[in-house]
Amino acid sequence: MTQPGPQRSATQGQQVIAYIVLLAVLVQVSFFFFGLLDPINRITSLWGKALEERRAVVWQPGSAFKAAADRFPENARIYMMYPQPLVHWNCVYYFYPRLVTVTMTNGVYRTNEEYNDWNERPTEDWLIANGFTHVLNFKNGGRIWQVRPGIGQILNQPEETHAPQ
Amino acid sequence: MPLSDLPLELFAIAVIFAAGAAVFCAMMPDPLRYGRMERLAYCYPLGLTALGMPMFLFSYCGFHLNTIAVTLAVALALIAATMVRKVSLRKFFTALGESETARLSLNEFEWFLVVIILLCLGTRTLASMLAPLNDWDGVCIWGIKAKVLYFNTVKTTDYFSRPELAFSHPNYPLLWPFMYAWVCTVLGKWDDLGMLILNPVNLIVFTMLLYATLRKYVVRPVALSVTVIMASLPALLHYAECGQADVPLMLISGASLFCLFEWMSERRKDSLWLAAFLMGGALFTKQEGKILLIAQFCAGALSVWLGGPVAHRKKYFGQLVFYGAVAVIWALPWLLFECGITNYAWDFGGTGVSTFRWGEIPTLCKTIIANGLYFYNQVHLAKWDYLFPILLLGLLTQKTWRHHPWTGLLLVFILHAGAIGALFLVSRVELTMQAMEIAFERYTLVMLSPLWLLLAKCVNDAWLVWKKPASSVADESALTRAAGGHSGSQRASAR
Q1: B-chain residues near A38 (CB < 8 A)
Q2: What are the sequence ranges of the domains in chain B?
C-alpha cells in the first residue's frame, strides 16, 4: 500500500522542479529575438541595393576580387607572382573558370611559410609553352602583363627580382 | 537575385523533393504511415542523398550535369515508385498520415510559438535571397568545388590533383557542391547568389522534421516550444545563410537519427532503411559523417542490448549491421575516390596516440564549456542563448530520459563530441577560444539533433507534472518507466 505522506511531498518537490524547468524554457523561448537579429540586420543592410553593392556590403574583398576577375576573358590562364595566401585562395574561386596558378613545379602552398618561401618566377618560354595569357604581379601594389614575346625582359627587371618585404 | 530566376530555382528544389519522394515510396511499404508534413520534409534530405551520388558517378564518367537528363530520370523513378506502391502523387503529398486525425485548433500560446517560427524562417529566407556567397569556408572550400563541378566534371578537372589547391581540402565530400552546381545548371549560369536558395530550405525542412518527430513523443506545446528554440537559435540562423556544409550535414544526419530513433523505439525495419540511406548521404556531405555513422551505430547497438528481448538481439544486430552496410555502400564510390586524393596534411596532420596532447585536455574542456556558455562570440553574434544550461537543468532534474531508448541519444552526442575532441587533441591546432570558437560553433550545430529530442523529453516530463493533478504524477512516472520512456497516455496526448 502506498504511503500518502512521502509520496505527496516528493510530488510537490517534482512540481517545484517542473515549474523551474518550464520557466527556464519560457525564458529561452522569449530570447528568440537574439536569433532574429542576424537575418534582420542582413535584410536592413542589403535591401534595395544592386547585387554587386550587396556583395561589397557582405564582404568587400569578394567584390574587389570579382571585379578584377571580370577584366579577364573566361579562357585566361593567369600566373601569379609574389602571392599572398588569402589573395591567392580567393582568386582561385573568383577567377574560375580562368586558370590561376602560383607554381611552375606543382608545388604545395598551404602555410604562410610556404608562401614566404615562394620563388617561382616564370620564364618567357615556360609561360608561352604552357599557354599562359597573363602574369599578375602582386609586388608593389599589383600589375598585370599580357604574355607575349618579350615579356621575359619585363619579368627580369631588377626591381622584380626580390620578394616583397 | 533577379525574381525572374525564382521559378527556375524553385524547379531545382522541386526536383530534389521529387527524387526524395521516389526514394521514400520505394523504401516505405506504406508511405502514408508517416504524417503529411513528415513525408514532405523527409523528401528533401532523401532527395539530396539520392541525387548526390549518381551526380558524382556521372561526373566521374565525364558527363556534365544536365537539367533535362536529371529531371527525366527523377520523373521516371517517381512514377515507377508510386506505381509500385500504388500511391498517387496527389495522395502522397496531400493525404493525412494514418496516425493523423482531425486537427485541433491552436490556442493563443501555440499560435504565438508558430508565429515566432514563421518569423525566424521567413526573415532567414529573405536574407538568404539577398546575400551572395561570402564566408571563408563557403567561398574557398565549398564554393570552389561547386564551381569546378559546374564548369567541369570530376573526370576532366585537375582540381583533385593540384597540390597548390590543398587549402580548399579537395578530399572533402561533394554532395553539397553538387547541389549548388545543380541549381546553377538549372539556371543555366554560374550564380553564387541564386544557388544559395538551398540554404534556407535546409533550415525550413529541419524545422519541419524536428517538429514532426517531436510530436510523436511529446505534447504539442512542448514540441512547438522546442522547435521555436531550435528555429530561433542565433548560431543556427547565422550559419544557415553561409555556404558551408555544416547545416546540410545537420539536416541529413539529423533526419537519419530521427529514423534510427524510431527504429530504436518501435523496431520498424523500414525506418532503419531510411536511416541507413540518409547516413550514406551524410557520409557524402562532410567527413564528419564517418564519426556520425559510428556514433549512431553504437547507439543502435546499445538500444539492442538494453531495449529488446534477448531472443531478438541477434535479429536486431543483423539489421543494424545491414544499416551500416547500406550507408557505406551508398557512399562507397566517393570513399574509394577519396583514397586517391593526396591529403597535404596541415592542421590535422600527425594523427596517432604518440601525438595525442594529453596535457591539452583541460584547455579543451575549458574551451568547450566556454563555447556552450558564452552568450556572444568573438564577432559579437549571439550563440546559443541559454540552451545548454537549460538542457543540463532538464537532464539533471528529469528522470524518464534515463531509460531505453532515450539513453541512446545521449550516447550519440557523447561519442560525436568525444570524437571531435579527440581529433583536436591529435591535431596541431591551438585549442583556445580565440582560435577555435567558430569551428566549435559549427561542430556543435551538427551535434544538437539528439539533444533536441532529449530536451523535449525533459520538458515534456515537466509539462506533464505541471498539467496533472499531484496524485497522478507518481502513476505517470511509473507508467513512463514501464513503457520504456514514453507512456501510453503521453503518446495519446501527443496525438
Answers
A1: 127, 234, 237-238, 241, 381-382
A2: 3-494
